[in-house]
Specification:
Order of helices and strands of chain A: EEHEEEHHHHH
Bound molecules: flavin-adenine dinucleotide, FE2/S2 (inorganic) cluster
Number of helices of chain B: 12
Largest interface: A-B, 38 and 32 residues
CATH superfamily of the largest domain in chain A: Beta-grasp domain
Shape of chain A: globular
Distance between the termini of chain B: 60 Å
CATH class of the largest domain in chain B: Alpha Beta
Order of helices and strands of chain B: EHEHEEEHHHHHEEHEEEEEEHHHH
Shape of chain B: globular
CATH architecture of the largest domain in chain A: Roll
Strand order of the largest sheet of chain B: 4-5-10-6-7
CATH class of the largest domain in chain A: Alpha Beta
Radius of gyration of chain A: 15 Å
Number of domains of chain B: 2
Strand order of the largest sheet of chain A: 2-1-5-3-4
Strand content of chain A: 15-25%
Number of strands of chain A: 5
Number of domains of chain A: 2
Largest sheet of chain B: 5 strands, antiparallel
Distance between the termini of chain A: 39 Å
Structural class of chain B: alpha+beta
Number of strands of chain B: 13
CATH topology of the largest domain in chain B: Uridine Diphospho-n-acetylenolpyruvylglucosamine Reductase, domain 3
Helix content of chain B: 25-40%
Helix content of chain A: 25-40%
Number of helices of chain A: 6
CATH architecture of the largest domain in chain B: 2-Layer Sandwich
CATH topology of the largest domain in chain A: Ubiquitin-like (UB roll)
Oligomer: heterodimer
Chain lengths: 157, 280
């Protein structure tokens, strides 16, 4: 057990726990943030994705020890931003959401990509989303949604 | 209960390694999967662990005239984005895993994991990359090919860790990495290949090829490469079949569920043929 500090959705949090826990379990159980989901638990599907210092990581393969003094944003925190509104509208407009299981991870992946590269090519979008599995849409609609977000959100990334 | 040590400085880290029996965790992308238990339980490590991600001084990437030095804590993504790093290595990393994994995984972790399917290894062998190993009292350098001596077997003392990966600056006319696997990313590779050459005035000045995941170790033969260096490009191309025969006995694929043995051998030799035919 030890005292762990980090920034979570814009607030400094301090919690006494075992640093050998997975970030995913901490978020869901201690903070009731259930946007990140356990799909595969092995880093393959992206359903558990969050932002670590503005970059996408899988919370199922991130130990708590590695987030000490760092900044974590989950889909819950991100959904309070203008960028989220743009991405959400683009996904809705282009049909990038069906069952929705992959959607929080896809939105996190989109933010991580556009934050670094506001004008990605199709190839760069595919690489940016390559760690996120979707069983429903066949990906093309999601690629279109990311392109739409980049266009509609011109200037905010 | 498994104890966790989370040092902020390298000296503190080496001190801990010297006095405790600890397993290192960098990004944790291999360690967490290998020690996975039930969800909501702590990670099922077999013993106490040493987390190195908080050590800023391990994250530097810098260069001198001869080498680029990559800190053991640098993530795959930061290495990939650093233009001083060999283009071949950066392109190799782009083929590894996904952005989410690359944002935390390290190159040192890929080396120390010593999996025959470790994608960086092919290019690191080809580039004659070295690791710097440090303990509280000693620093040594070793070629990656000597550091790894079997599947998951590495030349690392209990009180030592990798602190840097050292990449020679080499001049090539062209170099590439190819991975034959089921999906764009996240496929622990079935088969990989790196090739590099330097040609001046039609003559081959440097020629290197390495094969990954075909044997229990990466296959590279400096002896065969020396037989090729000095030839003209057209001589080499006329000899393709002979050269494939030289390499054939070195390529002994492991049979596992990922890929059929003969298929892997055939594909490896085809990748070599394609590479030779690409020379100009
Ligand atoms: C979904 C997924 C996809 C993947 N795709 C690929 C892929 O395409 N290609 C590929 O090659 N790999 C892949 N991997 C494997 C893994 O991501 C890589 O091997 C990665 O580079 C490991 O780095 P890490 O920092 O996460 O290592 P960790 O898990 O932290 O450590 C791995 C090993 O290295 C040791 N270690 C770490 N740092 C040091 C050090 N400084 N000194 C001494 N020992 C050390 C640890 O003790 C451990 O034994 C994938 C993994 C996942 C989960
Ligand atoms: S649950 Fe983490 S990547 Fe699938
Ligand atoms: S919308 Fe169902 S998994 Fe992507």
């Amino acid at each position: 057990m030890m005292k762990i500090n980090f920034k979570l959705n814009d607030q400094i949090v301090e919690i006494t726990t075992d640093p050998n826990r997975r970030l995913l379990d901490l978020l869901r159980e201690d903070f009731n943030l259930t946007g990140p989901k356990e799909g595969c638990g092995e880093g393959e599907c992206g359903a558990c994705a969050v932002l670590l210092n503005h970059e996408i990581v899988n919370s199922c393969c991130t130990p708590l020890a590695n987030v000490i003094d760092q900044e974590i944003v989950t889909i819950e925190g991100f959904s309070k931003t203008k960028r989220y509104e743009v991405i959400k509208d683009a996904f809705a407009k282009m049909g990038g959401v069906q069952c929705g299981f992959c959607t929080p991870g896809m939105i996190i992946a989109t933010e991580s990509l556009l934050n670094k590269n506001p004008h990605p090519t199709d190839y760069e979008i595919k690489i940016g989303l390559s760690g996120n599995l979707c069983r429903c849409t066949g990906y093309n609609l999601i690629v279109e949604a990311v392109k739409e977000a980049a266009k509609a959100g011109e200037g905010i990334w | 209960m498994v104890e966790a040590f989370i040092p902020k400085s390298l000296s503190e880290c080496l001190e801990l390694l010297n006095t405790h029996d600890l397993k290192i965790v960098a990004g944790g992308t291999d360690m967490l999967i290998q020690n996975r238990t039930h969800s909501s339980l702590p990670i099922g490590y077999k013993g106490d662990v040493l987390y190195i991600s908080q050590i800023e001084e391990l994250k530097n990437i810098y260069e001198d005239n001869q080498f680029v030095y990559i800190g053991a804590g640098a993530t795959l993504e930061t290495i990939m984005e650093n233009l001083s790093v060999s283009k071949l290595l950066r392109e190799t990393i782009l083929e590894m895993a996904s952005p989410a994994i690359r944002h935390t995984a390290t190159l040192a972790g890929n080396i120390a994991n010593a999996s025959p399917a470790g994608d960086s290894l092919v290019s690191l062998y080809l580039l004659d990359a070295e690791v710097e190993l440090k303990s509280l009292t000693n620093t040594r350098r070793m070629f990656v090919k000597d550091f790894i001596y079997g599947v998951r077997k590495i030349n690392l003392e209990k009180n030592e860790m990798i602190t840097k990966i050292i990449i020679p600056k080499l001049k090539f006319s062209h170099a590439y990495f190819k991975k034959v696997g089921p999906r764009l990313s996240d496929a622990i590779s079935k088969l990989s290949f790196s090739g590099a050459y330097l040609v001046e005035l039609g003559r081959i000045i440097d020629f290197r090829v390495a094969f990954g995941a075909v044997n229990i170790y990466v296959v590279r033969s400096p002896g065969l490469e020396l037989k090729i260096i000095g030839k003209t490009v057209s001589q080499l191309k006329n000899q393709v079949e002979e050269i494939l025969n030289w390499y054939e006995p070195l390529i002994k694929p492991i049979n596992d569920q990922r890929s059929n043995k003969n298929y892997r051998k055939e594909v490896s030799l085809n990748l070599l043929r394609e590479f030779i035919e690409s020379l100009n």
